[in-house]
Structure formats: C-alpha cells, structure tokens
Amino acid sequence: MLDERRRSRALSSGAFRFALLLSGLFASGSALLLWTVQHQINHYATEATNALLRNESAALAGEYRTEGVGALVDAIAQRKAAPGGPFEYLVLDRAGRRLAGDLPMSASMAGWRTGFVQDPGGQPEEARFLGVTLPQGGLLVVATDAFDIRRMRDRLEAFTLASGVLISLAALIGGGLAGRLFVARLDRINRSIDLIMAGGSAERLPAIGVGPEFDDLVHNLNRMLDRNVAAMEGLRQVSTAIAHDLRTPLSRLKQHLEGMRNPAQRQPVAIDQAVDQIDDVLHTFQALLRIGMLEGGVGRQRFSSVDLAEVMERVCQAYEPVAEDQGFRLTVDHVDHAMVTGDRDLLTQLFSNLIENVLTHTPPGTLIASSLTVSDGVAVAVIADDGPGIDEEDREHVFERFYRADGARATPGAGLGLSLVAAIAELHGGQCRLLPTMRGVAVEMKLPIAGSAEST
Amino acid sequence: MKILLLEDDESTSAHIVRTLNAAGHTVDTCTNGQDALFLAGSGTHTVLIFDRMVKGVDGLSTLKALRVMGVRTPALFLTAMDGVMDRVEGLEAGGDDYLIKPFATVELLARVNALARRAPIAEVNHVLRVADLELDRMRRAVCRAGRRVELQPQEYKLLEFLMLHAGQMVTRAMLLESVWSFHFDPGTNIIESHMSRLRGKVDRGFDQELIQTVRGVGYRLDA
Fold first, then answer.
1. Contact residues, chain B, for A324 at CB < 8 Å
2. Is the same domain home to B145 and B105?
3. Does residue A238 or residue A162 have the better pLDDT?
4. Whole-angstrom distance, CA of residue A176 vs CA of residue A184
5. Paired residues of B3 in beta bridges
6. A314 and B185: CB-CB below 8 Å?
7. Angle, to 10 degrees, between the axis of helix A308-325 and the axis of helix A344-361?
8. Are residues A309 and A372 in contact, defined by beta-carbon separation less than 8 angstroms?
9. pLDDT beyond 70 at A454
10. CATH of A224-293, one of 1.10.20, 2.60.40, 1.10.287, 3.40.50
11. pTM, rounded to two decimals
C-alpha cells in the first residue's frame, strides 16, 4: 500500500516529469534527425544513380554512333555476360522491336523514370530507368536497381528507431528512479519537519545527499531553525523575566493600595510611593519596547550626521555635578570632533546609560573615565571605571535583557540598561564590548566615521 | 484659557478635561480629525492638545492641515507613540511639544502653560527680569541685585529656561529636553545637582529665594 503510494508519487514527482519531458524532446529530436538524414541520403543516392545511368547510356550511345547497332548489341551482350553488372538494358529499333536486353517492353520510354524490375529471385525491385533516343530512331533504355539505397535507408531507420526507443525508455526509467529517490529523501525531511512542528525543537533536518546544492539548502534551513530556536528561547527567558521582575513592584503596589483602604493610611506620601512604583513598571516596559523597536531596525530612517564628541561632551557635562555630588570622579578625554552617521538622541541615551550604569553599580569614590579617540576611520568611545568590576561568568551576559549580576540584585534597575546600549550600538552598525581590564569595567563602543568608507 | 482636545479614548479625555478644568481652563473636546480641523480653524483656542492615533484623520495629518491653513495655535501632541522618529515627525508636522502617554497630569499642565505663554519670537525682550534677577540674552550675562553672577554654560541655559517660563511650573523632563537634549528619563536625578549649583549662585545670600522646588514635579522661578 505504502509502496504503491510511493510509486505513484514517484511517477508524479518533479524528477520523473522532467525525464518524461526530456524523453519526449529526445524522441521528436531523433525523428527530425532521421527524416533529414534520409532526405539527404535519398537525394545524394539518386544523384549518384543518375550519374551512373547517364555515363552508361552515353558510353553505349557512343558505341552505336561510331560502330553501328551491331556493336551496341555486342557491347550489351558483353556486359550482361560479366557477372554482377549493375545495369539492365533494352534496345529497340525504329519499329519498336527488341534488339537486345532483358527489360520488359513496358520500360520503353525516353527520359527519366522510376519503376520496378524483377530481381534474380523474381521479386519486384525498385529501379531507376533512363531512356535515350538513338540517332536513327531506335531507343536505348538503361536501368539500375535502387536496392542499396533502400537497404541503407531501412537500416538507418531501424537503428534510429531502436536507439530512440531505448534512450527514451532509459530516460523514463531513470526519471522514475530519480523521482523515487527524491520522494524517499524528501519523505525523511518531511518526517523531520513533522517532528519539529510537534515540538521537537532539538530535531534537525537530515542531509538530502544528492548534490551539494541540496545539502547547502538543508544546512541553511537548519541554521534558520537554530536561530529561531535561539530567538524563541530568548523570548521565553524575557517573558519569564518580565513576569518575575514586574511581580515584585506590582505586588508591593497592591499592598500599598490595600493599605489605603484604611483612611488613616491614605497619606500623600503613600500615594506618591504607589505612583513611583507604577512609574518603575512603566519604565521597564518603555525600555523593553525601545529595545524591541531598535532591534527591529526602527529608527535608522532618521539617521543623520552626528558629532559623537558633542554627544559625549553633553552627556558628561550633564553628569559632572551628579558624579561630584555622589562622590564620584569623572574625567573626560575626547577628541574635538568625530562625525558619525546616527541618531543624536539614541547616542545620547547610550552614553547616559553607560554612565548611569557606573553610578548605580560602583561605590562612591570610583573614577569614571570617558574617552573618545579616532583611528583608521573608526571612532572608539570608552567609558571605564575602577570599581569592583564584573565577575568572569557574568561578563558575557551583561548585554542580555534582564541580566543582573548576583552582586547587582540589591541595586535598583531592571537589567535593561546595557541591553539598550547594545541595541543602540547594533542599530548604528557599531560594536559594543567589554574590554579586558585589570580592575573595574570598561565598555568600548566602535562606530565608523561618516564618509570614511569612501576615502579608504 | 480655552483649550481644544482631540482624543478618542473617553476615559483619557474625561481625565484630561477634569485636570484642565480644575486648573481653571475651558476645554472643547472632539474625537476625530475632521471636527478638530473645524474647531481649531476658528482660531479661538490658546492651545491644541492632539492625540496622534484617532479614528479617521489622525492628529498628525490634522495638524499639518491646520498649519497649511495658517493656524498658528501652539499644539501639543499627547500620544503613546514614543519612538524618537515619532517625536521628530510630530515636531516636523508643526507640533510645538510632545508628551508621551502615560503622563503625569502636572507634566501636562506645565507644558500647556508653557505653550500658552510662549511669546512670539519678535517680541522677545533680550533682557529677562524676575524681581531683582536679570538675564541679558545678548551678552549672556546674569545679575542679581545689580551684582554680576558667573554661571557655567549649562547653569546659564537652565536659568534662561526658568526665566522664560517665569511664574510657571517647569518639569524635570522639560528641563532635560531643553537644556541637555535628553529625550528620555535617566535614572539619576541629573537636574537636582545642577539646580543646587545654580541656586548656590543665584539665590544663596539673598533674602528671597527665586527658584522654588515643586515637590515630585519640578521647579518654578517666581518672585
């Protein structure tokens, strides 16, 4: 049953149809070839026969002209006596009486003609006739059979037919086999896809193995699956993180509001606190939305020429008094100009987040160093600190959404600041990474200088 | 003053109307762009508050049409569309300010007041005065009670903004936007540190404190 189905699917498969089409094309091609070759051979053979007949009749007519009718008859008798001569003859006198030759009287006609003669076995045989009027009014007819031509034609026909049929058959069988092969291989792929759709996220497509192009396809599909699985996993982690992170402020808020059922607790301070908690939640949502939009590439349409030096200068100036008030030291070492292509507001937020990050996660007294250099057409911005640094196992995760190092659990924030930094950097085609440092943390962001691609 | 509100969400609309009424303003409301176009075309409103996403003709197109018609009434977009691009689009369409939902009512009031008091550019006096505080915008010089006060560039910008909105409440977000181009809310209270330095130079040692803190919202410069 299954075999039956597979066979019918093999017959309707693309490979088989292709083979069918090819064999059809081949059959019509060989038919055309056969016809052309036959036509050409026919033409050539007829010409050759005609030339033979013309020469022979000219020779005999010459004999007649110089030596007379007796010589002609002798010459014919001589030729007939030699075995295997290709010609048959007929000589008539002026009154139409046969003087020599074996051809039937029906052949007595002047000019070219195609007709039949008896072969030695008594079978009619196709032949070519040439009748020449003799000077004194007699008629000389020379004929030769077309046997060789026909035999050649027949053989050619048989050969072409046989090979045409064989090749078409081979193409059909090959097509059917290839169809079966593909159907079987694709069945394996389809089974894998069924498994994946049924939730087997670890399942991957098997190699088709017919040619490198198919394996490339499968490889790429598998890569796509890997990416999707990773994205799904990320999404799951983020949703869990959102649920987890929002539960705390929301339950606190609920307690607050329940407490306010009691008029004695309905203090402006309590209301302010509740509003602050809602603000925290909204803040988290806004940051998430922003990251999502940036990762989707939204915002690139608004890119224009931005001076990174101006952006960093402005951010540093904004934070200078804050850092001072909180006991931090902020040093600035920027080049004068670094024109990049980007969004001024987003880049502002990027550096603001980096500095906020240091202010939040390091103790007072920490040095914050902002530097901006340009080399080889790339602007390199580094925000470094000499704080306690990040544990080795946390380093690779710091740019992930909601990731908070264990030591940072107690500090405020949702773990989105650096994800936003990474998303903004990526939107700008830049790279963001942690530099290896002896102490503290150094985040480096590289952006290509606008217009440098053309000059280098 | 008379304000036109374009907002198709009933509860949001009612909330805004209550807030504005409580502050002593009259509010006309409408829920679609066509009505807003008609009402605002009368030119009798002091400020327009437009939601961007409303049924039918949206707020953005409505304002564009009004600007083409020559209506110059200051307009504030009040919207949940918080992308940088959205804001730029809003301002390019002829909006004067942009406030993102969810918003604090005080923030809305402060911004509406700021828009209403916005003086036409030609009439700007290059010397701003509040009590005995003077700011000369041409010379970028500040004097208090006749004595020169030396300010850092950012402190100067901060004071200039406060003086341009003298007597009005100015929120932290407004200051962040106008002085530092921060169109987001940084976690740290940046303004506080700058403000304390500014106060130290402008108010300390004088009888009257001109810069007042409005708790939880922002600041007001008033005599």
1. 193
2. no
3. A162
4. 12
5. B27, B47
6. no
7. 30
8. yes
9. no
10. 1.10.287
11. 0.61
User: How confident is residue A134, by pLDDT bands cut at 50, 70 and 90?
Assistant: confident
Within 8 A of B182 by CB-CB distance, chain A residues are 318, 348-349, 352
In this prediction, residues A396-420 reach a mean pLDDT of 69
Partner residue opposite A322 with nearest CB, options B85, B182, B193? B193
Query: Which of B82, B84, B180 is opposite residue A314, by nearest beta carbon?
Result: B180
**How far apart are the CA of B137 and the nearest CA of chain A, in angstroms?**
21
Is A386 near chain B, with CB under 8 Å?
Answer: no
Report which of B202, B179, B207 is spatially closest to residue B133, judged by C-alpha positions. B202
Q: Are residues B175 and B88 in the same domain?
A: no
Residue A367: the pLDDT is: 94
Q: Which residue has the tokens 């006991």?
A: A327
Pair B104, B160 in one domain:
no
Are B113 and B132 members of one domain? no
By mean pLDDT, which of A16-30, A48-62, A369-383 is the weakest?
Answer: A16-30
Q: Are residues B45 and B85 in the same domain?
A: yes
Q: Which of A343, A346, A356 sits opposite B187 (nearest CB)?
A: A356
User: Is A428 a residue whose pLDDT tops 50?
Assistant: yes
Regions of chain B where pLDDT drops below 50: 121-122
To the nearest whole Å, the CA of B194 is away from the closest chain A CA by 6
Domain ranges of chain A: 1-203, 224-293, 299-455
Distance CA A141, CA A100 (A): 10
pLDDT at A455: 41
Q: Provide, as residue numbers in chain B, all residues whose Cβ is less than 8 Å from the Cβ of A282.
A: 102
Whole-number pLDDT of residue A74: 84
Q: Which residue of A lies nearest to B101 if distances are taken between CA atoms?
A: A282
Yes or no: say if A338 and A308 are a contact pair by the CB < 8 Å rule. yes
User: Which domain covers residue B14, as residue numbers?
Assistant: 2-117
CB contact under 8 Å between A356 and B85, yes or no, is no
CA-based nearest residue in chain A for residue B100:
A286
Measured CA to CA, the distance from residue B31 to residue B206 in angstroms comes to: 51
Whether residue A410 is predicted with pLDDT greater than 60 in this model: the reply is: no
Cβ atoms of B112 and B47 within 8 Å: the answer is yes
CATH of span A299-455: 3.30.565.10
Q: List strand residue ranges (DSSP E) for A227-318, in order.
A: 304-307
B6 and B108 assigned to the same domain: yes
Work out how many domains chain B is built from and give that number: 2
pLDDT in tens, B56-110: 888 999 999 998 888 888 999 998 877 777 888 888 888 999 998 888 888 898 8
The fraction of chain B above a pLDDT of 70, given in percent, is 96
Q: Which residue of B has its CA nearest to A276?
A: B216
Give the ipTM: 0.74
The CA-atom distances, in angstroms, between A381 and each of A65, A338, A430, A446, A455 are 117, 10, 11, 6, 22
Q: Are residues B96 and B12 in the same domain?
A: yes
**Whether residue B81 sits in one domain with residue B40:** yes
The residue of B105, B154, B184 whose CB has the most chain A CBs within 10 angstroms, and thus the best one to mutate to test that interface, is: B184
**pLDDT over 90 (residue A160):** no
